[in-house]
Amino acid sequence: MNNEKVFFTWRDISELTGVGKTKSYELIAKMNKELESQGYIVAKAGIVPKSYAQKRLGLLME
Predict the structure, then answer these.
(1) CA torsion through residues 57, 9, 38, 30, sign
(2) Residue predicted with more confidence, 4 or 49
(3) Is residue 49 predicted with pLDDT exceeding 80?
(4) How far is CA 36 from the centre of its chain?
(5) CA geometry: angle at 56 spanning 51 and 58, to 5°?
(6) HEC string for 1-62
(7) Which of 9, 12, 51, 56 is found 20 to 30 A from 3 (Cα to Cα)?
(8) CA 37, CA 15: separation in Å to the nearest integer?
(9) Which of 43 and 39 is assigned the larger pLDDT?
(10) pLDDT tens digits, residue range 2-24?
């Protein structure tokens, strides 16, 4: 089984961006709201799909 993360938590977002816990949760909530508006089902509050977060945070080159 592949152990690679599929979702990021606030800790992951914090490490990637250098922001604190509260701001990380705000970023996750914003990204999840964006996903919902695009018709996606959000798994649960407090996590965000890794691939979407990397794209939105400018960590992936397209």
Answers:
(1) negative
(2) 49
(3) yes
(4) 13
(5) 95
(6) CCCCCCEECHHHHHHHHCCCHHHHHHHHHHHHHHHHHCCCCCCCCCCEEHHHHHHHCCCCCC
(7) 56
(8) 27
(9) 39
(10) 778 899 999 999 999 999 999 99
